[in-house]
Amino acid sequence: MSQGQSDIPITEQCSVRWSHAEPAEDGYAGEQDGGCRLYPGHIPTSPLQKALLAAGSALVALYDPYRHDMVAVLGETTGCLVLPNLRDKMKNDPEGSRVLQERPRIRLSTLDVEGLRRLPDGTLGREYLRFLEDNKVSPDTRMPAKFVDDEELAYVIQRYREVHDLMHTMLGMPTNMLGEVVVKWFEAIQTGLPMCVLGAAFGPVRLNARKLQVLATELIPWAIRSGRNANCILNIYYEQRWEQTVASLREEMSIFPPPAVRV
User: Fold this and answer.
1) How many Å separate Cα 262 from the centre of its chain?
2) How far is CA 253 from the centre of its chain?
3) Do the beta carbons of residue 79 and residue 195 sit within 8 Å?
């Protein structure tokens, strides 16, 4: 979880589409460069280059789990076998297919921050904004996809990144190491992304004995049961659910309420 702005600016709500025709920051647009660049920011890489990037990013991410740039690279370079399955889950679900077609983005520029702040306590929008402000994080810190060699799959992993903070909100987990590990266990079961599996497996090595006991006896079993039981997290159009309560959305998604333990 990267540190963001402590005072989130008020922005006007708008709709942003992921389009390969949109100019990239380096001046390239979708089909330029002989068709090698599939979307803005795409960096074509060979299998060998992906393997080297995966190995290097894994080492750095294991040493420093808060290096989210390396976590992002690891997710993209190791997720090629899993992302098509997630994409198909979205295509086969009515709400998920709308998300995949309309390509919404969760950014400060797409959030009506003052509108979310006026929502009642307990609603998804109000609790999500509270999470951002309490933890001094911003959705704009999520890295754009670069190494996924398919425009549609690049959006899928981008969407996963941008709903990560919503998973913290839904699961009631803070941004400390224990909370991150719990969310990673849930996401590993939900998505099968190797990056999530590695985070779930190796994240606990940084925890003390008391937290390890709580993790092993209470939180991991709950995260696994919830991950197996819940609907696909990418099949929710969260931007259209801000006024729904977190409790009712958990029930709809079949996520079990969090254990009553201090995280």
Assistant:
1) 24
2) 17
3) yes
